User: Fold this.
Amino acid sequence: MCNIENENDYSPAVMNWLDAFPGDLTCALQIWYEGLGGMGTPSPAEIAAIEEALAKADGWEPAGDVRYEKMGIQKSIKRTTPKTIDNNGHIMVQHMFKLGSLLKAPDGKVYKVMLSEVYNLRCFEVKDNNLVGGMIKIDPTSDFAKSLVEV
Amino acid sequence: MTEKITHSICVGGPIAIHTEDGVIRRIRPIVFDDNDPKGWVIKARGKEYTPFRKASPAFIAMTEKNRAYSYDRIRYPMIREDFVETPDGMDRKTENRGKSGYRRASWDEALGLVAREIERIQGTYGKESVTAITSSHHSWGLLGYKLSAFARFFRMLGYTQILDNPDSWEGFHWGAPHTYGYYWRLGGPEGFDLLEDALQNVETMVMWSHDPDTTRGGYAGNESTMWRHWLDDMGVQFIYIDPFNNFSAVKQADKWFGPRPGTETALCEGIAYVWLSEGLYDKEYIAKHAHRFDEWENYILGRGVDQTPKTPAWCESETGIPAADIKALARRWATTKTMGGSGLRGGFGGVARTANGTEFSRVMVQLFAMQGMGKPGQNMWVGTTGAPIDYNFWFGGYSDPLSQIANQPIADVTAVNSVTQKLYRPNLPDAILNGHYEWYGEGFCGGGLDLQFTRHIYPEPGCNPVHMFWRYGGTFMGTMLDTNKWVRMYRSPELQFVVNQDIHFHGEARFADVVLPACTNLERYDIGEFCNSGNSGYQSHSQTGCSWQVVVFQDKAIEPLWESRSDFWIFAQVAERLGWGDKFTENRDELGWCKRFWEKSDLCEKISWEDFTKKGYYVAGVPEERERHYGFRWFAEEYPCDTPNHKHFQEEGKLGTFTGKFEFVSESLLYYAPHDEARTPIATYKHSWEGHHSIKADKYPFHLISPHPRFDYHTQHNSSTPWLWEIPENRKYINGNPYLIARIHPEKAEAKGIKEGDLVRLFNERGSVLCVARVTYRCEKNTIHAYGSSGIYNPVKPGDTSMDIGGCVNILTPGRLIGSMVPGMAPNSTLIDIEKYEGEIPEGQMFEHKLDAVAKSADPEAETCMDIISGHGFESIQAKARELYLNKQKEATK
Assistant:
């Protein structure tokens, strides 16, 4: 466990972890394990204390119940402005282009991200809720990629 | 004589097919021409390595001709002779399934009956009352393989889906993700570019429960065989650990260790003890990347709850391997750059299919973590994956949702199953026979750790049980466990109607009410890539197990034999009779669907459809200045993950565990299943519920291990290809029956009065199987080795739970799951006894006679299999070719 001066106030440790966290979405359970070095399942009081700290976090907002592949459904918060590069300036392709997300181009076309890996971004155009046309390759570092807005 | 050359792929790899006058004459590997790209080059230790300019399929691929013309082909639609289409589904003499004969039916009669039964059963009991499942393998091709046409039909129909279990690597799937994540790779490690890493850096290979020349990286044929020879030639030491000194080990092992089956986790712990007590591990790496390591260390050193140090001496008492050897193994592993793992891609192996499989898999990962997994020359990699690849070329594999005709974008409309009720494959008989079954998990839980713990109840509240079962391809009699419970299931009146759609008259087809003859993929159109099981599903990018990335247009070499038809055609015909044929086909024929896979992938940018179908294949070259994304290096060297098929948290530098580190105490297990008796938070060696510490061992003292077969691919080839039975290591004819070989150690054989070549009975309380003894020092003393997945299931009394003479050793394996919360199979936790068989030798049961009899009684004019082959001049073609060859030889020697 990290040093917590006041065992009922997780705020400083939580804020430190959030500052360093390169992702956009998190929950109390993730912070328990990754941020506070928690071992074993946290008690309801410990979760409540972390959530209390999260509620005060600047630059973050409630995201409701979200399913995590690791931890199942958790009450979550998300960054108000998503991060696309990590703290060392590395591009994070999957953070920019989330699998299954819909992206809108300046010309109004909407694309669904079907593959988001190693600078290998693949989409299909979406028309009337259907995937149409051929598979489209997009260079995630291109101007076109930068112009895409998540719908 | 007009010769035509077409191409196809089977589970053994890509092939070229020569046909003359409509008869397949020969099968050969595809040899690349000058227009195909250059092979990759790996520079290592002063040499350059590049692959042969041909695809290297497995020998089973060369039997595809035999498989097509096999004696046991299902030639016509058939209906069980005593089946009566009662209006309420009762009184159908289901107890006769498996022993009744069949009458020939027209397609119209058979399809009409199937459609009427679907309508009756779903109309009476609801959509959920129909269930269906494919085998693990049928016929390669994105259109016809298991997740495409089948899935489209049944999702459109609405049915109770049967969840697949990861039957080849259970322990890695249910265990390893709790140590290092990779649940999206179903527990397997990532092997990207590790061939180059190994050639440049590795000094020792630990091949645990691994017989790569037999299991061939899954579907990769012999592509990686040469890689392992390269490593051998450069002096890399190979250590094989397997209760059977397997076929790869005998030619390559510098040292073979044969632990007693079920004790492999103890051996891992013994190795860890040496490392911990001698300081032979990467302390810096562990300090940075491991979670709760000290608690595990305490357990190993005897400071934990059990107060038992896992010393080499302790380890020897469990495994039978001398303590000195264990120390030597541990020291060699730790002091040289070592790669290794278990089974065909490093996260497989028969050891993962034991009662202790999850714990072995977790400790295996922990051992590699202790040596700095991901650093150059230090990784989980077993010489069967990780060839250079063009990461920017995309063509789908069969598990990719993007490459299935059930889904957009291949289909215009995605097919969605309206039924939420599920069943679970290994326990399907229990669910049918008991009317109730509960289990955890979604089968293949690639979608998340949480999905291992979802709870299912059958029948789902508000749903009815199933009353119709449609089996598609292959036979579970040889691949699922406790075969006799499947026999009991089929005889149950709960299953009012059973359909079997298959190419060959496998053991399971004989339990159906209606048998629908499918054709091989040499008789229909399809498209597929060599060894590509999916770039996002399963253990992704398995095509890196090949030296070449080859996409094949699977052209029709011959017309469907007899009255067999393509799987797509069969489903389309039933859909037509149910009133939604056009929706199913979207007005495309099979060639039209194949073209969709071309136009929805990168293939359409590389080669035109016309050129592709004319040439028959496309080889995706690897750029000279290629990208490299070494598996796990990102984690070891702490940069954002750059390997394909990664997760967003890997970009944040974390593993897929709760803490993002290697968990030596699993937080996910503490969170989801703190009382799981099979997967404890600290992975530990546990006595098997069926092992040498069991009371049962007094009565049944031998461990049966039944690994993946060398002379087959699941049940695909062995049953249909009699010349494979002439291989003495595979089968031996006695009284006209090809008995499977069972191997026994000479000391034990002598004690039992068994000699080489004797008929022996393998038996336990579940049943008995007659085999032929091979007495060999290649077996660990307490082990009987007989390959699993027998394609032949031949009970002496058909339809009964009687002695088998086909080699279906799964009659003996336990139906019990690994644990109450671990729904994996454990065929290699089987205790049996063996005796020389001195009873009456059963009559030979050659299928061709039975089938010919069925066909002849239905239609006296019907041709037999041999009639048809001879009728097409096949034998005279062969004779002419032989004469030409002999003449050439004569000329050459003059």
